[in-house]
Design the sequence.
């Protein structure tokens, strides 16, 4: 794994300031977009000095990538909660709806997510690498979940199904965030229908 561009704090007080900087950056990215934000503005919003910001982040890109990392960690936790043994007992329709709706609630609760994963998705090759690695990780978890749900499927088939499902859902989520809430809801409904139709053959209720 590539070393992060930011310095990870070890003390509780430093961790608090680190999080304040990320919170401030998230607010500003959501308000005016990544390209328009400066490190001075982030430091001011975080009630710290620019020097205090540079203790952890060499530049704005490092702040941005640390925020991406935070969101991805939160999404890992969310997916782990959804992929329980109890979920294997749910109908396919119910499981997919639960996952898509939970992810949508996460996006709604984190307004900067739109800026981080849409407006600035091409901000750096490292950001793209983080996205790719994250999707692969989630696909591996989903493949393990599929193994429990249908042990008869070969590993290569489960991995393919998981990879396609994750990539489709991720791409459509990005698309849904490019317009207003009505369009977002429409795309989410179509995402559910598409995934259910695709997976029904392999995981009949």
Sequence:
């Amino acid at each position: 794994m590539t070393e992060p561009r930011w310095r990870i704090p070890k003390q509780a007080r430093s961790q608090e300031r680190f999080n304040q900087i990320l919170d401030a950056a998230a607010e500003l990215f959501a308000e005016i977009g990544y390209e328009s934000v400066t490190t001075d503005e982030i430091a001011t919003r975080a009630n710290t000095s620019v020097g205090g910001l540079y203790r952890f982040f060499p530049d704005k890109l490092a702040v941005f990538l640390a925020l991406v990392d935070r969101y991805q960690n939160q999404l890992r936790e969310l997916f782990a909660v959804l992929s329980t043994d109890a979920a294997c007992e749910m109908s396919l329709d119910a499981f997919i709806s639960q996952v898509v709706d939970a992810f949508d609630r996460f996006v709604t609760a984190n307004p900067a997510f739109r800026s981080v994963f849409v407006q600035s998705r091409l901000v750096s090759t490292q950001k793209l690498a983080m996205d790719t690695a994250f999707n692969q990780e989630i696909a591996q978890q989903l493949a393990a979940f599929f193994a429990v749900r249908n042990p008869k499927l070969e590993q290569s088939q489960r991995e393919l199904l998981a990879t396609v499902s994750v990539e489709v859902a991720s791409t459509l989520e990005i698309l849904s965030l490019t317009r207003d809430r009505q369009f977002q809801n429409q795309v989410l409904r179509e995402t559910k229908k598409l995934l259910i139709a695709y997976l029904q053959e392999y995981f009949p209720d």
Observations:
- Residues 72 and 134 are 7 Å apart (CA to CA).
- DSSP finds nine helices and no strands in the chain.
- The domain at 64-199 is CATH 1.10.357 (Tetracycline Repressor; domain 2).
